Amino acid sequence: MPAAGKRHRAAAEKIDRNAHYDVGEAVKVIKAGATAKFDETVELAINLNIDPRHADQMVRGMVALPHGTGKSTRVAVFAKGDKAEEAKAAGADLVGAEELAERVQKGDIEFDRCVASPDMMAVVGRLGKILGPRGLMPNPKLGTVTPNVAEAVKAAKGGQIEFRAEKAGIVHAGVGKASFSEEALEENIRAFIDAINKAKPSGAKGSYLGRVSLSSTMGPGLKLNVSSLVG
């Protein structure tokens, strides 16, 4: 068995698959089991009792994790003139207008977040079929179509992440690295859960939060006690 498989099995043997862990206890177990040679990502998966095929049950938004994600975010900004200069000063990795659109059309997409000033949407709109499926299309509701491009760049660089329910009503997110302190991971997890609760759609009925699990990149998943996440 490969070393990674042995590590996974050894970690799995230390947890109770049927137990529901309080968030603090779960973080301790996940950190102890993250023994890969790289800094593993701590991942949260939430099953929501929604059907996102209905417009009034879609869950999508942004959340700023108090301790960031532990990974760098490459940000592209569609802007001209003063707005382009503001974006560059704020630390954007790629800034441009028509020439940036041409790069995207050729498949040169070396960024994780895309921001646009409102006057650029005629250009960006043509890229919907490319950026949309990748979850990169700028959106005013998410604050990525904005006249304040500098603020959007700083937010993305500072640990703001986007969340979106998939077809089965599941939301996935990386909420930090195994090297983070227990306190930092717990605060990030609680911030993410709080954002999900605030994004509860009007069409959601009954119990909104379903199964919640926490894992590291190479480790097994732990079920979380939902009541330990609320409040």
What does this structure look like?
By secondary structure, the protein is of the alpha/beta class. 32% of the residues lie in helices and 22% in strands. It has helices at 3-13, 23-33, 81-89, 98-105, 121-124, 128-131, 149-157, 182-198; strands at residues 20-21, 41-48, 60-64, 75-78, 94-96, 113-116, 160-164, 170-177, 209-216, 222-224. Strand 9 (209-216) and strand 10 (222-224) form a beta hairpin. Helix 2 (23-33) packs across helix 8 (182-198). It is globular, with a radius of gyration of 19 Å. The N and C termini lie far apart (43 Å).
Order of helices and strands: HEHEEEHEHEHHHEEHEE
- Give a quick account of the main beta sheet: strands, pairing sense, barrel closure: 5 strands, mixed
Quick one: how many beta strands?
Answer: 10
Oligomer: single chain
User: Which radius of gyration do the C-alpha atoms yield?
Assistant: 19 Å
Roughly what fraction of the amino acids lie in strands? 15-25%
Structural class: alpha/beta
Task: List its traits.
five-stranded mixed β-sheet, about 230 residues, three-stranded parallel β-sheet
Brief synopsis:
This protein is of the alpha/beta class and 231 residues long. It has helices at 3-13, 23-33, 81-89, 98-105, 121-124, 128-131, 149-157, 182-198, and strands at residues 20-21, 41-48, 60-64, 75-78, 94-96, 113-116, 160-164, 170-177, 209-216, 222-224. The protein has a 5-stranded mixed β-sheet, covered by helices on one side. The chain has a 3-stranded parallel β-sheet with strand order 5-4-6, with helices on both faces. Strands 3-7 form a two-stranded antiparallel ribbon.
